[in-house]
Design goal:
The protein is mainly α. Among the domains are: 282-391, Up-down Bundle (de novo design (two linked rop proteins)), CATH 1.20.1440; 409-454 and 456-581, no CATH class. The protein is 67% helix and 5% strand. A nine-stranded parallel sheet has the order 3-2-1-9-8-7-6-5-4.
């Protein structure tokens, strides 16, 4: 048996019984559905391919035999088989999610989680954490980057299966109840099979806004106060019976409906509608929560007398809204706290409906009314009612306001430069110029309606100098004159050269009068965004990691020298080739002093549902990141990281330099972009209709790597099973350092270096050399193919040597098991995709009808591979 087969066999043995039982159950039910809908022959073919790819992994079945089997089916049958494996992955992912949730709960029962808020308090001490909490800021920003390959209808179908699986596994259920749950499971899996995997129509930006709202409705609104409660309980006894020691530290942002860089579908009208959709959802949630809490607080006045302030507020409400308050008093006689909170709920509803006679003017007014009830309950001795669910509601208002998430606008610096030329020249403005000015006017409208916190950040992508920042302020003055909205213009540094000059740009920004005025008003706060995706695409993973680290060091030093409170905004992707990886480890790998209690990061595409699709997982993720921010902000951790950085900086620079040289030797070679388009489904990815961006931007045969956006670059490489953006060049970089022991010491002691190698190891584990070789051969450039495979072998060998692992992911059992168990099934989809891709790339052009059917097969396989690898862009 080969080493890969041994690894897979051990993974099967290690597979926990609960997980194995769920996978077996879901697999059996899917098999039943496939047989019912497609016939026993279809199920037989699925099983035939499944056994063949497992045999190929064990070197018991020749690779060519599997390819011949796949090539022997007609395209319609191949499409059905691709659907079957894709559905299987959706169900397998669901089973693993349920297992993860069970493990999280078991650990909680066994004394708590590592990397939690409680563990941060235990490690740093109550006093130190209490100090850090005063300035603690965690700011996730949801983006519409098109990396979620599943249709919303598919996601919803999977969620219904999840609900029924939970019901089925609920302890203490009788046999008849389990039989009914099994029937319902089968019904939902049947519907999942019948649901089209591919979108027929392209998403528009408001579709993306509504999709993101699902994460808020189902998870975020409920989980945020639970996270604050965890911190409050860790900071002192009696949480829920005293004033909270924790303060709200999470603020959500969104680019969805605001990011117009490269997306002309995002207009000023869309931005306005996006904020209104967000407001509708958060006000509905606040109204529902307030009404629910009001109905539970049935404390009678004789046992819980209202304060004088509350009695006065009720009287004033009666004078202004006699019919409403009379009705509430009739429904809740002698229950003043209940009456008041029902009145508050009615006012929130009026705010949502824009009933100005009753509506709240601002979240501050709502908070005042909620605290009035809280203080009255406390004074009456009802401390549990004062600081329990009512406190959760207060935290929700403080976190989400009436706008839910701050909508941020992003536009390219070149667009501003072009429009500014038009504006200065006078005359009739172009449609694009009018749109830029309309966007600024909408920002002003949003601030009038919802406050400055709802929309004030304006991100300028590809910022090159302070003039790019000044351009936005000048355009704002032209658009609105004296009524210019409050703007925090955020430079985004993405290329290697821009990262090198970032501190110089900020120095120039300080000379701008608009920035000077803003610094007086915002306690000298400056935000800077760092682009991980494009820097990694340009430089390779190792060199980009060091370039970003050094830029953060310079920016941190600049901020200290200029008395600036700096917040770094990390534009990280979900995939490893775009700065992805575990967020908490990323925080701990930042340069000392650069976090300072503040962490802002993009949450992109499939990451939103992976992290926020279930309450238990969302809470765990938030606590892990908050834990890391607290630790990274402590002097002890900072000193340790600083010492490691000083010791290993020269070594890391040597790795980065050699790595970049190897990476550029491949990606800048003549003919490389055209070759890449041939060996991958790059062009076809646009047909998946993943997002509202124009499908052809960064898609098709590029003339140079600069023509490609980072998302399709990473997505396409993942499909080929090469995963090149996550590791290429690192092997050459490690090879340039002759002292293996020093590399091993850097891996042990420096979080940055450890994160780099661990992320590369994960990417290598999801790479399959045999499959990749078949894709690389499609381009007709054996020199490129050989170059890639040699670097893969080199990187794999040296990463294992430095980490001391005998096999990839040896120290990450859960992830290793997931990858190894999935690999054969991903192989099946890769074979189907290779069949389609080979035919589409053939010199013998298929007919239009056959091309359409081959494209369907290709896109289904793309969808399935993304589900199997749990990676898109």
């Amino acid at each position: 048996m080969t080493s890969q087969a041994v690894e897979r066999h051990s993974a099967v043995i290690e597979m926990p019984e609960e997980l194995r039982a769920d996978v077996r159950l879901l697999g059996e039910l899917l098999g039943q559905v496939i047989a019912e809908q497609g016939g026993p022959d279809l199920l037989a073919d699925v099983e035939k391919l499944r056994k063949a790819v497992i045999g190929a992994r064990r070197r018991e079945v020749p690779f060519d035999e599997v390819a011949a089997m796949v090539g022997g089916w007609d395209i319609d049958r191949a499409v059905q088989i691709a659907r079957a494996f894709t559905c299987y992955f959706h169900l397998a992912n669901l089973a693993e999610e349920h297992y993860r949730i069970r493990i999280l709960r078991e650990r909680d029962n066994d004394g708590g989680q590592r990397e939690s808020l409680a563990s941060a308090v235990e490690e740093l001490g109550v006093e130190r954490v209490a100090q850090l909490v005063e300035g603690l800021e965690l700011h996730p920003v949801l983006t519409a980057h098109p990396t979620e390959a599943r249709r919303r209808a598919v996601v919803t179908a999977i969620q219904r299966v999840s609900t029924q699986l939970t019901e089925y596994n609920t302890p203490g259920r009788g046999e008849s109840e389990r039989a009914e749950s099994r029937r319902r499971l089968l019904e939902e899996i049947d519907l999942l099979w019948r649901t089209a995997q591919l979108r027929n129509t392209k998403l528009d930006p408001l579709d993306e806004v509504r999709t993101a709202m699902a994460a808020f409705d189902e998870t975020l609104f409920r989980v945020v106060p639970q996270v604050y409660r965890s911190l409050d309980a860790a900071l002192g006894e009696g949480s829920g019976t005293r004033e909270p020691l924790a303060r709200p530290f999470i603020r959500y942002g969104s680019w969805i409906g605001g990011d117009r860089d490269g997306n002309p579908n995002v207009t000023a009208k869309v931005t306005r509608e996006a904020v209104l959709i967000q407001a509708e959802h958060v006000l509905t949630a606040l109204e529902t929560a307030t009404g629910r809490i009001a109905r539970t607080i049935t404390a009678a006045a004789q046992f819980t007398p209202p304060s004088a302030a509350l009695r006065g507020a009720i009287k004033a409400a009666t004078d202004s809204q006699p019919d409403l308050v009379s009705e509430l008093a009739t429904r809740s006689p002698s229950e003043p706290h209940r009456q008041w909170l029902l009145f508050v709920a009615a006012r929130i509803g009026a705010t949502r409906r824009r009933d100005l006679d009753l509506a709240y003017r601002s979240p501050a007014d709502l908070l005042a009314d909620l605290r009035l009830a809280q203080e009255s309950l406390r004074a009456a001795g009802a401390v549990r009612q004062a600081y329990g669910e009512l406190q959760h509601l207060i935290w929700q208002v403080e976190t989400f306001g009436f706008h839910l998430a701050e909508l941020e606008v992003r536009q390219h610096s070149q667009v501003h430069a072009t429009v500014l030329e038009e504006v200065r020249a006078g005359g009739e403005l172009s449609e694009r110029a009018e749109e830029v000015l309309a966007t600024i006017r909408v920002i002003g409208w949003i601030q009038e309606r919802f406050g400055v916190d709802a929309c004030s950040r304006y991100v300028v992508s590809f910022t090159r100098n302070a003039g790019d920042i000044a351009a936005v302020y000048e355009l704002a003055e032209f658009a609105l004159g004296a009524k210019t909205p409050v703007l925090d213009v955020v430079p985004l540094f993405e290329s290697g050269a821009d990262l090198d000059h970032s501190a110089d740009v900020l120095a120039g920004m300080l000379d701008l009068p608009q920035v000077q005025r803003r610094l007086k008003d915002n306690d000298r706060r400056v935000e800077v965004m760092l682009g991980y995706s494009d820097s990694a695409k340009e430089l390779g993973p190792a060199a980009a990691t060091m370039k970003l680290y050094e830029a953060q060091e310079r920016l941190t030093a600049w901020a200290a020298a200029n008395d600036i409170k700096l917040r770094l905004f990390h534009g990280r992707g979900g995939a490893l080739g775009r700065g992805g990886g575990p967020a908490n480890r990323a925080v701990l790998a930042q340069p000392p002093g650069s976090v300072a209690g503040r962490f802002k990061v993009t949450e992109q595409g499939e990451v939103i549902f992976a992290r926020y699709g279930h309450q238990a997982i969302a809470r765990r993720h938030m606590e892990q990141v908050a834990n890391a921010v607290l630790l990274a902000s402590s002097p002890v951790v900072g000193e340790r990281t600083s010492a490691a950085a000083d010791r290993f900086r020269a070594l890391a620079s040597e790795v980065a330099t050699a790595s970049e040289r190897a990476y550029r030797a491949l990606t800048e070679a003549p003919g490389f972009p055209e070759w890449f388009a041939l060996v991958s489904p790059l062009e076809e990815i646009g047909s998946l209709r993943l997002g509202s961006r124009p499908a052809r931007r960064g898609l098709g045969a590029p003339r140079s790597l600069d023509d490609l956006r980072a998302i399709p670059w990473v997505f396409a490489w993942a499909q080929t099973r090469v995963n090149l953006p996550g590791w290429y060049g690192l092997g050459s970089g490690l090879e340039a350092v002759t002292d293996l022991e020093q590399l091993r010491a850097a891996y042990r002691e420096w979080p940055l270096f450890a994160a780099l190698l661990d992320n590369a190891e994960m990417s290598l584990a999801k790479t399959d050399r045999s499959i990749a070789k078949r894709y690389l051969a499609l381009g007709g450039r054996p020199d490129f193919a050989e170059q890639v495979l040699e670097e893969y072998d080199r990187t794999r060998r040296l990463v294992l040597a430095v980490t001391g692992h005998e096999r990839l992911l040896q120290n990450r059992r859960v992830l290793s098991r997931a990858v190894q168990l999935r690999d054969p099934y991903v192989d099946a989809l890769s074979h189907l995709q290779l069949r389609a891709l080979t035919a589409l790339r053939s010199e013998e052009k298929p007919s239009e009808e056959e091309r359409e059917r081959l494209s369907t097969l290709l896109l289904l396989s793309v969808n399935g591979v993304a589900a199997g690898l749990q990676n898109t862009g």
